[in-house]
């Protein structure tokens, strides 16, 4: 533990790496669409808005999809430490390519692809290294540590949005992308330095795992092959039958959603059926699959911040303070600001609860998160009804919604990271962290499709949309809380404190 006592010494180093990586990611993301639609004469690519949004959606989804192969490479070959270093270098190269791309579309696409590949290598593996800092039975400490680590994400998000966003819009796009490259370089230097000290012995290459017999190995290869062929067949059938239309941004989003679901199911079944798991590990995998679905539902609601809530802020909220009109985009900074303020409180509560031997099931935490994110939308229903008559409502409605959503996020996201790192079979930890991030990718796509399915440009449609989002969160949240005790008894032996086995030590 550190001198400030409560957290392992390596956690601060991983916090800083994640902070700088998120600075680079969110800083670049803040100006990406603006750069894409800006005129070629101004250094942009001059794309149509619909095309720019489609590229943005495909990119953000690809980042999380690539977390699966990134975790696989770590678990099978490199180990988390090497995967993080290689990923960081590729991210830096990608940002540099964006900085020098100007109006060269090929250079830009290569840079964007590099960032996606690099993030896929870095993102799941740095989370798995946080998990390595804790004993498998230290539930409260692990949840608190991931909450602290999660705060680094949001510090980086705020800094990146302000710094890279300001430089990109004011000085030129290449300055914004260049700032993101510098931030990632700072994170890489910090990680290499920490690897020689606080993180020594963590994230090492995996020990070879051998199947107990040739029949199991053949079964592994056969099931893997069948799942790959099935995934290709599903995508091909949907494309040829016209269920997927790749000629529109919405169609591309639907195709990405089908791809993510197909990959998620295939990945899960591959490990479950061909991963040489014990009966206890298979039950834990069922738990993680249920949490995956719950997380996807949660993110489909939470990520409305960039669609329906953004429209609500711009069109229906009174943003005038004296002679100054608050930009609608600034409301999205409420979430990371609340994260930074509330994380120490939530982290302290997890340790407090563990010290008093309070067992709060992960299903209860996820269920409460879903209920809270729904309540955030319920708060907006009367506000949207008022706005639908032509008036504008107080900013306090959005302030309250973002506060409630942040509490929900802190109950789900860092807890999910902690739980996946703890319950996943040891030799598949990094891959299962990639599986967790896949839920965020699916949820983000679902968020866009939910908003697209409603006429969000019309104030009259907003009350109905917010009501649907509330009920669609309330029911699964209550269901999770109701099944918490029987599911914990069946899958985890009645307690989330794991027995010390070679797989969980």
From TrEMBL:
<feature type="transmembrane region" description="Helical">
    <location>
        <begin position="360"/>
        <end position="381"/>
    </location>
</feature>
<feature type="transmembrane region" description="Helical">
    <location>
        <begin position="147"/>
        <end position="167"/>
    </location>
</feature>
<keyword id="KW-1003">Cell membrane</keyword>
<dbReference type="InterPro" id="IPR000109">
    <property type="entry name" value="POT_fam"/>
</dbReference>
<keyword id="KW-0571">Peptide transport</keyword>
<dbReference type="GO" id="GO:0006857">
    <property type="term" value="P:oligopeptide transport"/>
</dbReference>
<feature type="transmembrane region" description="Helical">
    <location>
        <begin position="393"/>
        <end position="412"/>
    </location>
</feature>
<feature type="transmembrane region" description="Helical">
    <location>
        <begin position="23"/>
        <end position="41"/>
    </location>
</feature>
<dbReference type="InterPro" id="IPR020846">
    <property type="entry name" value="MFS_dom"/>
</dbReference>
<dbReference type="Pfam" id="PF00854">
    <property type="entry name" value="PTR2"/>
</dbReference>
<feature type="domain" description="Major facilitator superfamily (MFS) profile">
    <location>
        <begin position="1"/>
        <end position="489"/>
    </location>
</feature>
<feature type="transmembrane region" description="Helical">
    <location>
        <begin position="53"/>
        <end position="72"/>
    </location>
</feature>
<feature type="transmembrane region" description="Helical">
    <location>
        <begin position="84"/>
        <end position="102"/>
    </location>
</feature>
<feature type="transmembrane region" description="Helical">
    <location>
        <begin position="252"/>
        <end position="273"/>
    </location>
</feature>
<feature type="transmembrane region" description="Helical">
    <location>
        <begin position="285"/>
        <end position="302"/>
    </location>
</feature>
<feature type="transmembrane region" description="Helical">
    <location>
        <begin position="465"/>
        <end position="484"/>
    </location>
</feature>
<dbReference type="InterPro" id="IPR050171">
    <property type="entry name" value="MFS_Transporters"/>
</dbReference>
<feature type="transmembrane region" description="Helical">
    <location>
        <begin position="334"/>
        <end position="353"/>
    </location>
</feature>
<feature type="transmembrane region" description="Helical">
    <location>
        <begin position="173"/>
        <end position="193"/>
    </location>
</feature>
<dbReference type="InterPro" id="IPR005279">
    <property type="entry name" value="Dipep/tripep_permease"/>
</dbReference>
<keyword id="KW-0472">Membrane</keyword>
<dbReference type="InterPro" id="IPR018456">
    <property type="entry name" value="PTR2_symporter_CS"/>
</dbReference>
<dbReference type="InterPro" id="IPR036259">
    <property type="entry name" value="MFS_trans_sf"/>
</dbReference>
<comment type="similarity">
    <text>Belongs to the major facilitator superfamily. Proton-dependent oligopeptide transporter (POT/PTR) (TC 2.A.17) family.</text>
</comment>
<dbReference type="GO" id="GO:0005886">
    <property type="term" value="C:plasma membrane"/>
</dbReference>
<feature type="transmembrane region" description="Helical">
    <location>
        <begin position="222"/>
        <end position="246"/>
    </location>
</feature>
<protein>
    <submittedName>
        <fullName>MFS transporter</fullName>
    </submittedName>
</protein>
<feature type="transmembrane region" description="Helical">
    <location>
        <begin position="433"/>
        <end position="453"/>
    </location>
</feature>
<keyword id="KW-0653">Protein transport</keyword>
<keyword id="KW-0812">Transmembrane</keyword>
<keyword id="KW-1133">Transmembrane helix</keyword>
<keyword id="KW-0813">Transport</keyword>
<dbReference type="GO" id="GO:1904680">
    <property type="term" value="F:peptide transmembrane transporter activity"/>
</dbReference>
């Amino acid at each position: 533990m550190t001198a400030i006592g409560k957290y392992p010494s390596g956690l601060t180093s991983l916090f800083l790496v994640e902070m700088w990586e998120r600075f680079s990611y969110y800083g670049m993301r803040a100006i990406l669409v603006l750069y894409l639609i800006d005129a070629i004469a101004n250094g942009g690519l001059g794309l149509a808005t619909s095309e720019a949004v489609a590229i943005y959606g495909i990119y953000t989804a690809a980042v999380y999809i690539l977390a699966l192969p990134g975790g696989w490479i770590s678990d099978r070959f490199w180990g988390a430490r090497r995967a993080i270093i290689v990923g960081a270098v590729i991210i830096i190269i990608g940002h540099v390519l964006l900085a020098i791309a100007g109006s060269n579309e090929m250079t830009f696409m290569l840079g964007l692809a590099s960032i996606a590949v690099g993030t896929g290598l870095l993102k799941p593996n740095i989370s798995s290294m946080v998990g390595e800092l804790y004993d498998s039975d230290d539930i409260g400490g692990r949840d608190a540590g991931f909450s602290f680590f999660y705060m680094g994400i949001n510090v980086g998000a705020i800094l990146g949005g302000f710094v890279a966003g300001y430089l990109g819009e004011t000085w030129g796009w290449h300055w914004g992308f260049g700032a993101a490259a510098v931030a990632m370089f700072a994170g890489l230097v910090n990680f290499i330095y920490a690897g020689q000290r606080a993180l020594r012995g963590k994230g090492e290459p995996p020990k070879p795992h051998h199947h107990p017999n040739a029949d199991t190995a053949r079964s592994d290869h056969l099931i893997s092959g069948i799942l790959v062929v099935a995934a290709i067949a599903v995508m091909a059938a949907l494309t040829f039958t016209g269920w997927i239309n790749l000629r529109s941004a919405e169609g591309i989003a639907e195709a990405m959603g089908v791809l993510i679901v197909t990959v998620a199911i295939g990945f899960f079944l591959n490990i479950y059926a061909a991963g040489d798991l014990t009966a206890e590990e298979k039950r834990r995998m069922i738990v993680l699959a249920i949490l995956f679905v719950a997380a996807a539902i949660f993110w489909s609601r939470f990520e409305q911040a960039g669609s329906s809530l953004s429209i609500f802020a711009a069109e229906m909220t009174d943003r005038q303070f004296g002679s100054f009109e608050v930009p609608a985009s600034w409301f999205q900074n409420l979430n990371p600001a609340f994260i930074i303020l509330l994380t120490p409180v939530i982290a302290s509560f997890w340790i407090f609860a563990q010290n008093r031997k309070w067992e709060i099931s992960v299903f209860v935490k996820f269920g409460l998160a879903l209920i809270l994110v729904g309540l955030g939308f319920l708060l907006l229903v009367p506000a949207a009804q008022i706005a639908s008559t032509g008036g504008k409502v107080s900013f306090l409605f959005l302030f309250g919604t973002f506060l409630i959503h942040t509490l929900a996020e802190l109950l789900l996201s860092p807890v999910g990271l902690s739980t996946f790192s703890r319950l996943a079979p040891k030799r598949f930890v990094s891959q299962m962290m990639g599986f967790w991030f896949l839920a965020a990718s699916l949820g983000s796509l679902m968020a866009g499709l939910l908003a697209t399915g409603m006429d969000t440009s019309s104030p009259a449609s907003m009350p109905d949309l917010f009501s649907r989002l509330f009920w669609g969160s309330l029911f699964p949240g209550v269901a999770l809380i109701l099944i918490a005790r029987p599911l914990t008894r069946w899958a985890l032996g009645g307690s989330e404190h794991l027995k010390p086995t070679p797989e969980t030590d």
